[in-house]
Write a structure and sequence with these properties.
Radius of gyration: 15 Å
Strand content: 35-45%
Order of helices and strands: EHEEEEEEH
Number of strands: 7
Largest sheet: 7 strands, antiparallel
Distance between the termini: 44 Å
Number of helices: 2
Strand order of the largest sheet: 1-7-6-5-4-3-2
């Protein structure tokens, strides 16, 4: 079983700046409390093939995650897939960004979760929790981006 959750927010910053902020996954702990630490390999700018390695805490358990960037079309599209072997993983996730006429940026984030092994039984619970939190997650992304990017 697999399924998707998504959220859309408007960030009061220009699309190029929002893309730069979001494509550097090292910002994830600023809006995702489950991310305890994260690194980028290689340490250079994010590109197709870049891997972000993180330690996350889900349901009271720490796990290691590896997310590989699979597509990058600045400043409008970023895609990733989880290459780590956990019971529930992100088959595909991404950001779609759109510059709005007033200088703000519409951002859609999505993740398609899938279960492996016992995770096939757990993915429904993970999806339910992610969908329930999607609006708040989007709001956290907006707040973090607006705090982390200087106004134009």
């Amino acid at each position: 079983m697999s399924g998707q959750f998504e959220a859309t927010v408007v960030i009061d910053r220009p699309v190029d700046a929002v893309f730069a902020y979001l494509s550097d996954g090292r910002h994830d702990p600023e809006f995702s409390p489950r991310v305890l630490e994260i690194t980028r390999d290689p340490a250079t700018a994010t590109a197709v093939g870049t891997v972000f390695r993180s330690t996350v805490k889900d349901a009271g358990m720490k796990t290691s995650r590896e997310i590989r960037i699979t597509a990058l079309d600045a400043p409008t599209k970023l895609r990733w897939t989880e290459v780590s072997k956990n019971s529930v993983t992100s088959r595909e996730g991404g950001y779609d960004l759109e510059a709005l006429p007033d200088g703000t940026t519409r951002v859609r984030i999505f993740n398609e979760l899938e279960g492996h092994g016992v995770g096939k039984l757990l993915v429904g619970l993970a999806l339910s929790a992610a969908r329930k939190d999607a609006g708040a997650f989007g709001a956290r992304i907006k707040a973090a981006a607006e705090a982390g990017i200087a106004p134009a």
